Amino acid sequence: MNLLLLKPDQITQQSATVSGRQFDHLLTVQRAQVGDSVRIGVIDGPMGQGIIKALGSEQATLEITLDSPPPPAIPLRLILALPRPKMLRRTLQSITAMGVKEIYLVNSSRVEKSFWQSPFLQPEALEEQMILGLEQARDTQMPNLHLRKRFKPFVEDELGNIAKGSQALVAHPVTEVPCPINCDSAVTLAIGPEGGFIPYEIELLSSIGFQSVHLGPRILRVEVAVPALISRLFPA
Amino acid sequence: MNLLLLKPDQITQQSATVSGRQFDHLLTVQRAQVGDSVRIGVIDGPMGQGIIKALGSEQATLEITLDSPPPPAIPLRLILALPRPKMLRRTLQSITAMGVKEIYLVNSSRVEKSFWQSPFLQPEALEEQMILGLEQARDTQMPNLHLRKRFKPFVEDELGNIAKGSQALVAHPVTEVPCPINCDSAVTLAIGPEGGFIPYEIELLSSIGFQSVHLGPRILRVEVAVPALISRLFPA
């Protein structure tokens, strides 16, 4: 936790109250003492400093100053085939930590149906992972996360508008075109499941203007490909 | 497993024998049948195709053709503060999958002493993770992995020679210099532990010519920072 990310209801004027996971982290990991200063931020708001005024047995009270903006979002709309549950949480944290603000988790032929039943897809569980990603990266802007359980209608009815005004790319090993480097404009990037999109899905994406691009001769797992692709498109 | 990576002792002339983990994977994950063709490679050797000639209860026999070279290594010498054991395996797999061939796992003030006691540091355990990384990426060249339990003598007596003829960089959030993009020459990159190198360590690295570079305003976990840094330096 490199940033203590507060919800608006934790704040009253210049003071904030911290309990639960964040309080435990302050105490056990950061070993915070009264008088210590910690980096804070408000969800979808500014960042600043908090000075610990009181440490109880279950909560801490901080005097807060909010004086700086969060880091800029990266101009990427990410379309990601739903990863298997154990990967989903880590991947969602990573994507959030890297500054992506528009995330679509979509179905694909090679996504196992059971993945959609995972408890990790509950809204609170998804929000928790994104909050952990923001706290890790020192950001406050929550991503907009969308779930789309049907690939074809999503691509045919929605994706064209989502990608409008951006460079539309799909990561696909079977192409001669390398993924662009250091883009200066918005990108919509589709990333398939382990095993990749099936040819029909690539054709459908191509039919609405998605260009297949590769990441080099090596096949990378989603958890590695995602940071590698984002960092290559937007080195920041 | 995108590549069946064989050890030389599995091969006799044009034929190879597969058992254990690889055999189980062929059967249960790839559901291979006699006559199927699978991508193969020989550790530190060429890649090609294997046709399954016989499937026993515990082993498979393949007729092999080795006709293509592995993908080129990326010209990166990676100096990585030893990650915590649960991260080490995944990170080592990722680094290997991305094509790094010179890896130094080193101590640092913020590396917990207990990490060095991990069973995952046994040579066989480390080799297994690198083989998994190569099989994932479709590569055959095993990385050279070195463990250095003492930071100061490593930097003072060894690192200068390791970095010779390369651009020496240390990932450090507290600098104004961004990490270079798309390098055309060799790089030696040092990456600290969670929490980063301590100032003394940065000074020591700087004293032998390491330039501190940052990855942007966000603080990334090692498992995300490593692919992001490698992909940025060598987009491939």
From TrEMBL, chains A, B:
Biological process per Gene Ontology, one example term: rRNA base methylation
Domain of life: Bacteria
EC number: 2.1.1.193
Pfam families in the cross-refs: Methyltrans_RNA (PF04452)
Localization terms from the record: Cytoplasm
The Ribosomal RNA small subunit methyltransferase E methyltransferase domain, residue ranges: 74-232
GO molecular function list: rRNA (uridine-N3-)-methyltransferase activity
GO CC aspect terms: cytoplasm
PANTHER family: 16S RRNA (URACIL(1498)-N(3))-METHYLTRANSFERASE (PTHR30027:SF3), RIBOSOMAL RNA SMALL SUBUNIT METHYLTRANSFERASE E (PTHR30027)
Physiological role: Specifically methylates the N3 position of the uracil ring of uridine 1498 (m3U1498) in 16S rRNA. Acts on the fully assembled 30S ribosomal subunit.
Family, similarity comment: Belongs to the RNA methyltransferase RsmE family.
Protein name as annotated: Ribosomal RNA small subunit methyltransferase E
Organism this protein belongs to: gamma proteobacterium HTCC2207
